[in-house]
Design a protein that fits this description.
heterodimer, A: 12 strands, B: mainly beta, Immunoglobulin-like
Chain lengths: 115, 114
């Protein structure tokens, strides 16, 4: 069985400071891991994806995430926050089961960016 | 390139009325299709997924149903809406085989049941 825990429901940063959104996962097999971003009243946009090719994954808009198997973590970071980064972020773990991948979503972290 | 459409974008319906939300995908064949619901301030709940025409798996028992009449069309329905059906409904697609692990989402439908 798989599960994902986003450790913070809200993260507040000032514009220009680093962003850290934390995610821990549990998986029976080698999972695929994702981060998605959702702006208000919009669909989810894929930020980045980990599939065992490299532990440090670079995504869009300057975000990156590091897969740490020993810590079962996949935290999302960005060196410098922009106002446009204010949104809801979802960590997702996906395992192969029954011939298809079925994802499990975290409950989301709301990123607030102050000017 | 692939695109996914949902309509309507917003919908206000009275309790007890029927519902039909439509999702279509362009630019790919034999996609896996998914319906999610997102209640206010909460995460995503997987409602249904489909690996092919006429093949529907339900994740959560409720008064909603799904159908896939065509390869790239996925419909979410209800005969009688409840207040608790209000929420943001998202359709998603993924590829086949090893590509099924990545989902791509539509713009969503905001449903308000009064």
């Amino acid at each position: 069985a798989q599960s994902v825990t986003q450790l913070d429901s809200h993260v507040s940063v000032s514009e220009g400071t680093p962003v850290l959104l934390r995610c821990n996962y549990s998986s029976s097999y080698s999972p695929s891991l994702f981060w998605y971003v959702q702006h208000p009243n919009k669909g989810l946009q894929l930020l980045l994806k980990y599939t065992s090719a490299a532990t440090l994954v670079k995504g869009i808009n300057g975000f990156e995430a590091e897969f740490k198997k020993s810590e079962t973590s996949f935290h999302l970071t960005k060196p410098s926050a922009h106002m446009s980064d204010a949104a809801e972020y979802f960590c997702v773990v996906s395992e192969l089961g029954g011939g298809s991948y079925i994802p499990t979503f975290g409950r989301g972290t709301s990123l607030i960016v102050h000017p | 390139s692939q695109t996914i459409h949902q309509w309507p974008a917003t919908l206000v319906q009275p309790v007890g009325s029927p519902l039909s939300l439509e999702c279509t995908v362009e630019g790919t064949s034999n996609p896996n299709l998914y319906w999610y619901r997102q209640a206010a301030g909460r995460g995503l709940q997987l409602l249904f997924y489909s690996v092919g025409i006429g093949q529907i798996s339900s994740e959560v028992p409720q008064n909603l149903s799904a159908s896939r009449p065509q390869d790239r069309q996925f419909i979410l329905s209800s005969k009688k809406l409840l207040l608790s059906d209000s929420g943001f409904y998202l359709c998603a697609w993924s590829g086949q085989g090893t590509s099924t692990d990545t989902q791509y989402f539509g713009p969503g439908t905001r449903l308000t049941v009064l």
